[in-house]
Sequence to fold (417 residues):
Amino acid sequence: MKKLVINGGYPLNGCIRISGSKNAALPMMAASILSDCDITLNRIPNLADVRTMIALLDSMGIKIEKNHKSSFTFNASEIESKFASYELVKTMRASIMVLGPLLAKHGEAKVSLPGGCAIGARPVDLHIQGLEKLGAMIEIKDGYILASTERLIGSTYTFPKKSVTGTANILMAATLAEGETKILNAACEPEIVQLGELLNFMGAKIEGLGEDCIIIEGVENLEGAEIEIIPDRIETITMLIAGIITQGELKIENINPLHIQKPIELIGQCGAKIEISEDYLCLKSSNEILPISFETNPYPGIPTDIQAQLMVLNTVAQGDCEIKETIFENRFMHVLELKRMGANIEIDGNTAIVRGVSRLNSAQVMATDLRASAALILAGLIADGETIIDRIYHLDRGYERVEEKLSNIGAKVSRID
Ligand code: EPZ
Fold:
């Protein structure tokens, strides 16, 4: 199994370009099911999760053409099957987002339940509840969601807790429902806003994107559209932290400053100098890193997807901090590996107390999930000696050409068998 080898202690300097967002691309690819026309998505990142979604849509008979490097056109006019197999869904739980579009467009769907995940139970009960509120008949049988409807009927659904892909599923389904749908306590993530923008380009009638209440007036049909995918805000912050902890100077290009305001505000407290421009930022690190306490929350709060990376920054800060994880009940899997690298971290329920140490040591470590693998890379960049990270297939799900990008700004990182 492939591993990453990192020799730590080298400052990162230079320019790095951010890829398109994985979590924006995936729901927009699923949205192609809603129309019989061409949906073109530009700046799709070359990631394992994107390839899984392409395999899933292809298995249903959706025509997929690669226009050029990161541009694909999807056409679902000749869809044959409304089935999402366990084989595909188990590798990527975001596959659940074909459920709403299949139901709304074809009145039927058979989609595997996603199953377990390292960072938490992650049920999809709210997706099902929301679709049932729109009148879908749903049965769970042999590990599959069997859903059917004559036609979805607009209604009001209040999420008891915010769900990103849950909101995406109901939003997509409601575009072809009869009448008006109100989604209350909706997710406000930029990825949801861009999904809604694409749907409106396709002829949907959606208002309130980015707010707690989204209103959708159902239409008979949706047309074709083309859109450029927003930059990956999680990759942006991951690379920013890489620059800060290695005391480097970076220019990070292709960012959207509006999507990272809160994280930038928080990270600015560690002492680094961050200058934001229209679509890039410049970092000048400081010699000392100050600790930053925080808790994760749904957007516009601090994303849970940067919790592990921010924890690494705090492992070498001058002082202590507290990190509270409020979204997923098991998202501290990286802590044990960081402790093997000499970090001083104590877990108390959903709170981690991090006491800064002067240096991390290298070690052989194992990635447990996507963002934990990013955190281990960051730790390897500052550890004394050679760190070897196992199970990097997690990383390839969400970071495009990571070792190439890091090597170009001075990191000593390579991939081995
Ligand atoms: C999305 O997952 C992202 N994935 C995750 O990013 C991200 O961590 C998460 O949102 C939170 O920001 C994609 O966009 C593809 P949720 P999602 O539904 O939608 C509970 C990454 O690293 N819940 O917002 O699956 C759930 O268990 C990934 O790129 C229910 O109880 O997350 C969690 O505690 C990891 N029932 C909370 O809600 C439901 O039906 C929020 O989860 C749905 C969710």
